[in-house]
Amino acid sequence: MSNRSVGPEITRLIEMMSKLPGMGPRSARRAALHLLKKPEQLLAPMARAMADAAQKVSACDVCGNFDTLNPCAVCQATGRDEAVLCVLADVGDLWAMERSGVFRGRYHVLGGCLSALDGIGPDDLNIASLISRAGQDQVKEVILALNATVDGQTTAHYVADQLENSGVIVSRLAHGVPVGGELGSLDDGTIAAAFSSRR
Amino acid sequence: MSNRSVGPEITRLIEMMSKLPGMGPRSARRAALHLLKKPEQLLAPMARAMADAAQKVSACDVCGNFDTLNPCAVCQATGRDEAVLCVLADVGDLWAMERSGVFRGRYHVLGGCLSALDGIGPDDLNIASLISRAGQDQVKEVILALNATVDGQTTAHYVADQLENSGVIVSRLAHGVPVGGELGSLDDGTIAAAFSSRR
């Protein structure tokens, strides 16, 4: 669409939307058209919501969560257990954990996983701040809720190693059959893990 | 995510994105997170691009295309054939037509198709302005490039009917096998149309 039949503002909007995860050129065009059809009701409000978020939201200095507050609402909340830290790779994982409603302690977002391939080392992640938080008196347990991937498990090993002499209990999420999961569609590793951890 | 662990600005951004065509709650969260991770490089520029488009882009008074110019760039272009009008349901169809590069005349966007089910009648579409444009001396042919759906073909019939006494040639896109299409995956109607229009 280099053609002038589509103006530069529209072309730019489509190009930016096509770079969103899960979007391609076709779906970006469809989404942009959907917004352009209702500039006052959809496009302008979305522009404001994005500008608002870009201006006000930042990573929490304590745990790495995204929020307009800093420290974030989870770090400031009074009703949450100070004794347990849940370590996550990503803010998206924090959102998922909060949706599950199962955890009422504090979080620590590493900001990724160790990856030799992507050149991500311990200094690129919020590991030093985790070690320092885990050293505080009130912290009794650190739950490593990292992805069950090679990078996630490498990171979990590394963090567990770093915490070895801190006196806190280090635990990990259980591996097993996902709720609603069918055995036939699971990989061998998951079945083996679920089998060896059977209760 | 009614929970305060995710702030209202982020919740609102995710909600708005989840209403885009092709997006759901999960992909909206992923896209919002992707943007929030780079507020300066991604989120703020996208907010500006959207605000820019919302402010500057409008529907062309002549043909219904979206552009920052009014009349739009296609209507203003000097190199295009004034004698042929291509009638489309939607601006997205105009973009597709321009990408194909096959048409060098003028456009007329109806803004939808007639639909008894959705309560869209002739007065809801830019049909009156089409009849008036088709009545201009320089216009010799009107190409009805409408979807090969029931609503699209109903609309084509209606428009052709309205243009019957205007003295212009009314043509329609050919039906047939899409280029690259496999016979086995086509519906009966398309095969029948391709067969009866064989050359």
TrEMBL record, chains A, B:
Keywords: DNA damage, DNA recombination, DNA repair, Metal-binding, Zinc, Zinc-finger. GO terms for biological process: DNA recombination; DNA repair. Pfam families: RecR_C, RecR_HhH, Toprim_4. SMART domains: TOPRIM (SM00493). Residues 83-178 form the Toprim domain. SUPFAM superfamilies: Recombination protein RecR (SSF111304). InterPro entries: DNA_Rcmb_RecR, Rcmb_RecR, Rcmb_RecR_Znf, TOPRIM_dom, TOPRIM_RecR. GO terms for molecular function: DNA binding; zinc ion binding. A zinc finger (C4-type) spans 60-75. Belongs to the RecR family. May play a role in DNA repair. It seems to be involved in an RecBC-independent recombinational process of DNA repair. It may act with RecF and RecO. This is Recombination protein RecR. It comes from Hirschia baltica (strain ATCC 49814 / DSM 5838 / IFAM 1418).
